[in-house]
Specification:
Number of helices: 7
Strand order of the largest sheet: 1-2
CATH architecture of the largest domain: Orthogonal Bundle
Order of helices and strands: HHHHHEEEEHH
Distance between the termini: 23 Å
Largest sheet: 2 strands, antiparallel
Number of domains: 2
CATH topology of the largest domain: Arc Repressor Mutant, subunit A
Low-confidence stretches: none
CATH superfamily of the largest domain: Winged helix-like DNA-binding domain superfamily/Winged helix DNA-binding domain
Strand content: 5-15%
């Protein structure tokens, strides 16, 4: 039985992408544009709305992953994760007033809610976040798309 090879470093992988740049770039652009187009359809053409939710979701998922990796550590729970419109504006480059309008729309859809402090959080229902439930088909298509993209990247790395 052959011993397993050491995994490549990020630098080694990057060097292989650079060596086959046109192929790498084609596959990346193909993946990225297909995903953005799919997201655009799911969000009625409003990619800023998607970005606002994505930033909130990233924070939410970071807490979920940390909680699963270290259940004994007392960090804010997933339900306690919140963020201000100003912080979203800073992170996204979207004007603060636009972020507020997007948050209001997401609140109308039942995906986020504002606390008395003015901060916002993802709405968590019985089966997880309401947004995840409503975006389940987009999520499934994204997973399939990422799997294909990963396979194509592996081909570049191995060559």
């Amino acid at each position: 039985m052959k011993p397993e090879a050491e995994p490549l470093t990020a630098e080694q992988i990057e060097a292989r992408f650079k060596a086959r740049y046109a192929t790498y770039q084609y596959h990346f652009v193909e993946f990225f544009t297909e995903h953005l187009a799919d997201c655009s359809r799911a969000f009625g053409g409003d990619l800023q709305l998607m970005l606002v939710l994505a930033l909130m979701g990233q924070m939410h998922l970071q807490a979920l992953v940390a909680q699963k990796q270290n259940p004994d550590h007392r960090a804010p729970s997933v339900r306690e994760q919140k963020i201000t419109a100003s912080r979203i504006a800073d992170a996204s480059g979207i004007p603060r007033e636009t972020v507020r309008r997007k948050l209001t729309k997401l609140e109308q859809w039942g995906w986020v809610e504002q606390e008395g402090s003015g901060a916002w959080r993802i709405v968590i229902g019985e089966q997880g976040s309401n947004a995840r439930r409503d975006l389940a088909e987009l999520d499934q298509r994204a997973m399939a798309r990422i799997a294909v993209f990963y396979h194509k990247l592996q081909t570049i790395i191995k060559s």
